[in-house]
Amino acid sequence: MSDAPLRIAVLLSGEGTSLENLCERIDAGELQAEVVLVIASKESAGGLARARRRGIPAVAVPRRKHPDPGAFNDALHAVLDDHEVDLVALLGFLSPFETRRRFDGRAINVHPALIPAFSGRGFYGRRVHEAVIEAGVRLTGATVHFVDAEYDHGPIILQESVAVEDGDTPERVAERVQALERRLVPEAIRLFAAGRLHIEGRRVRIA
Fold it and tell me: Do both 6 and 50 map to the same domain?
């Protein structure tokens, strides 16, 4: 444990609304943390501009230029090597991230469903909410979990549900799920920074 702010690298692929929410929580004094790096898997990702407006180093590592997952992760880790990072947060990151032992237990992901339902390869963004509605389930939600070698699979840190209502659209479901994400991600990071998360097999114990 240290009194120094937790140093976070955010990996994203889109507009960076979760990044913005995290930065706002830090600005409000709710988290003793600092986003020290943003990496995007797309050069066009809006999250890069959000980061640069805040003076955060922002780098694109385009997935399409690295079709091999290993080479892609070589490039990601090369960027991470240039920054002292305590935690990697995947916030809307649509590509595989390999922890490579260095970040075992120090990388988290947020998924817009109740893992293990509606998760894994191909389940991201609007596709998740369309699948939820098509399946006719009554509940969906958001999950923050540690990253392991599989998509949307690592030990769950926090998970909450919201109702799926009659006549719902993917957009309406997404709005409720995103409200959960905006609360759960900062809380998971706060618990991590406080040293309160302990992985025991497939479970995360909160001290």
Answer: yes
